[in-house]
Amino acid sequence: MSPEKRLKALEHAVRPRVLARYGGQLAITVALLNVVPLVAALFAGAYFSAAALAGVVALLTCCGWLGRRVEASEEIQANEALVLAAAAFVLTPLALTWPLSTFGLAPIDAWFEAVSAVTTTGLSTIVAPEQQPWPLLLTRSWMQWYGGLGFAVLCVVLLVPRGLAARRLLEPSGASESNIPSMTIHARKLFVAYLTMSVIGWLALWLAERDGLTALLHTLSGVSTGGFSSLNASLAGFRHPASAWLLSLITLAAAVSLPLYLSAARGNWHRLATDPEFRALLLMTLAFAAGLTAILATGGMNPIAALKHGFLLGISSQTTSGFSSIDPSTLPDAAKWTSILSMTAGGSVGSTAGGIKLLRLLVLLRVVQLLVRRMGLPPHAIAEPRINGRALGASEVLQILAVPTLFLVVVTGSIIPFLIYGYVPIDALFEVVSATGTVGLSTGITGSDLPGVLKTVLAFDMLAGRLEFIALLVVLSPYTWIGKRYEIP
Fold it and tell me: To pair with 441 at 20 to 30 A between CA atoms, which of 24, 197, 392, 395?
């Protein structure tokens, strides 16, 4: 039997009953989450918007109830989990398009805002958010908050107990199969950590800014590294100068792997201090921020202002939060290139940050280092890449490095339509990388006047980046849907 036939014999297509049952549970979860903007719309007297939200909540609840009635296996295949993940991020924005359009947005802009929200990107077609009703702003930020939480927990659900990435989420230094906790317990711990960070961030920003609603909106978007701001000037619009720095610290904390905080809560601060990805995050944030400061200062900006804008922009780019104290369209090309590199690298695995993730960058560097060293080793010598003292298997390296490769493929393909429409190449690249890395910084290309085709391209980039590409490829693969189905007893 050929290798291809052996693989085909082992493959199993997704089971409709499993998708229906767990898709129903997902629909009920999304329905419950959207009760919050529904109550906000009622409180603000936006009854038409509240009615639209109520309709969506009712429809999702009904679909969820029907799905939960389907009998199916309790075990989920990897491809089924990925299909459910893709469905969550693709269908939720579609469901919220009508409610968002009731606030005065064009349907395509409402859909774009919803995609940007749930993927925690922050690109927006709204020019002046201060002129928008607060229930709309709360809905956007709230979607970013639960989109960020969903992604962090989703990493655990999809990967455990599969290799380095799973153990990296559960125990930052690597855990054995025997001490991996149950998914339910671990998900609850992640939720507590996420909620605690959100509450602390909100109270701190409220004290600094003296505005509870503004603090809440920015904390929801900050903890999720989403970047939606209720202020026209983003970080520059805060009343108190300390608020911008405080929010930047919140986003930096959110770019750290959530399981690291669980280790610290158990008293194991050593893991936080020695974790290679955590140290890489701090080092790269400092390096890119210093580089941006130097570029702005040599470009004629006041040194103090260059220091402020350089570090705020550096933190925003590296954490993929997308807040800004300066209009990115005014940046010199060198600063744009620096930001593009920073946005591409992104934050930590298991955090709400986007980008290709620093763990993958570290693995890539280890593989390159190993290739160079192999040139001086005898053929029979055993040499394998290691991260934090742990050897990586070939399948793990392949899985980890697939994401950076697909990131480059998507960025390359997405920039072509912008060039056809006549946009400046560096600005188009900046915009596409910002979308694919789920960052939200914009050179001014994104707006209500952007052609619908290009809005669709950016929306695809945001979804692909948030799902880390593999899930969308699984959905599009015919082997996912056609073939024999395995019914687990």
Answer: 197
